[in-house]
């Protein structure tokens, strides 16, 4: 309850900061103009790049979250560590991300290349599950590796979505993305549950075989994530390569877009004024 209260207060503060920030950036008028025009049917305007990003996000979390849910038990049963030590080893994923995500985020903001980094982190996910399935490398090495990929993904995948959709459609875009992600994760959990079965009733050898099948499944979803990221980069390149732009390039593009929107709005207002001044019955003919 305390955490929910903190989250609620934080959301209010962020909303106020966002409103003030938009006004200071001069985007308030442009955003209002876009919002007035938005209709739910405009969801069909989402680009192919957006939908490929949604698929990449879904497959990434399908690869990560089911594993994290069972990782402590996996480490305990395969490597023989105590439940407490197994939890500590698995926690390395999040411990590393606490430190790395802000640093990687600042670097990505400067250099851009979100699309390329998305390819890198999704590709790096694939060997993680191959190593867990077929080798006995110390698990902390693998969880540290996974923590690095998670840090990169957190800094590039979700922040890429606001780049490829209009501001007025951002809430819808993020909602659709989250719904599809949860649908994928829910389905993956069912598959993993079927693979593992009733773990307590199995022999040690049977458990290890089930864990291996689970890792192979997650390796397959990682490959699907990488494939979606490849096609997202191809689609984005055909539309100007905005995903791989640096912060400076994005600000320049945003400035030009805002100026264009404001110019269109002023033009529409001028036309309305002209229409109001026009005689109702057409041009008045001078009578000689």
UniProtKB/TrEMBL annotation:
Record field: compositional bias (Basic and acidic residues): 267-278
Pfam families in alphabetical order: MFS_1
Membrane-spanning ranges: 46-68, 88-108, 115-134, 140-158, 170-193, 213-234
Keyword Plastid: no
Keyword match Transmembrane: yes
Catalytic activity: L-alpha-aminoacyl-L-lysine(out) = L-alpha-aminoacyl-L-lysine(in); L-alpha-aminoacyl-L-histidine(out) = L-alpha-aminoacyl-L-histidine(in); L-lysyl-L-alanine(out) = L-lysyl-L-alanine(in); L-lysyl-L-lysine(out) = L-lysyl-L-lysine(in)
GO MF assignments: transmembrane transporter activity
Keyword annotations from UniProtKB, A to Z: Membrane, Transmembrane, Transmembrane helix
Region listing for Disordered, in residue ranges: 267-288
InterPro entries recorded: MFS, MFS_trans_sf, MFSD1
Function: Lysosomal dipeptide uniporter that selectively exports lysine, arginine or histidine-containing dipeptides with a net positive charge from the lysosome lumen into the cytosol. Could play a role in a specific type of protein O-glycosylation indirectly regulating macrophages migration and tissue invasion. Also essential for liver homeostasis.
Subunit description: Homodimer. Interacts with lysosomal protein GLMP (via lumenal domain); the interaction starts while both proteins are still in the endoplasmic reticulum and is required for stabilization of MFSD1 in lysosomes but has no direct effect on its targeting to lysosomes or transporter activity.
The protein, known as: Lysosomal dipeptide transporter MFSD1
Organism: Mytilus galloprovincialis (Mediterranean mussel)
């Amino acid at each position: 309850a305390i955490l929910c209260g903190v989250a609620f207060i934080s959301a209010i503060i962020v909303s106020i900061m966002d409103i003030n920030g938009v006004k200071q950036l001069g985007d308030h008028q442009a955003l209002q103009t876009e919002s007035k025009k938005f209709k739910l049917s405009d969801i069909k305007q989402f680009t192919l790049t957006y939908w490929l990003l949604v698929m990449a996000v879904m497959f990434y979390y399908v690869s990560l979250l089911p594993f994290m849910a069972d990782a402590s038990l996996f480490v305990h049963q395969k490597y023989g560590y105590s439940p407490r030590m197994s939890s500590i080893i698995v926690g390395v994923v999040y411990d590393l991300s606490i430190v790395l995500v802000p640093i990687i985020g600042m670097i990505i903001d400067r250099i851009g290349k979100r699309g390329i980094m998305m390819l890198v982190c999704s590709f790096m996910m694939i060997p993680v599950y191959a190593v867990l399935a077929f080798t006995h490398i110390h698990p902390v090495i693998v969880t540290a590796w996974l923590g690095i990929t998670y840090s990169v993904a957190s800094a590039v995948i979700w922040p890429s979505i606001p780049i490829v959709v209009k501001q007025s459609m951002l809430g819808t875009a993020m909602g659709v993305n989250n719904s599809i992600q949860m649908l994928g994760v829910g389905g993956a959990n069912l598959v993993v549950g079927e693979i593992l079965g009733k773990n307590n009733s199995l022999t040690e050898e049977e458990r290890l075989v089930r864990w291996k099948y689970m890792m192979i499944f997650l390796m397959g979803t990682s490959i699907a994530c990488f494939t979606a990221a490849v096609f997202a980069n191809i689609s984005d390149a055909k539309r100007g390569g905005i995903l791989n732009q640096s912060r400076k390039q994005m600000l320049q593009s945003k400035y030009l877009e805002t100026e264009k929107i404001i110019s269109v709005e002023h033009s529409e207002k001028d036309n309305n004024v002209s229409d109001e001044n026009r005689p109702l019955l057409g041009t008045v003919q001078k009578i000689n």
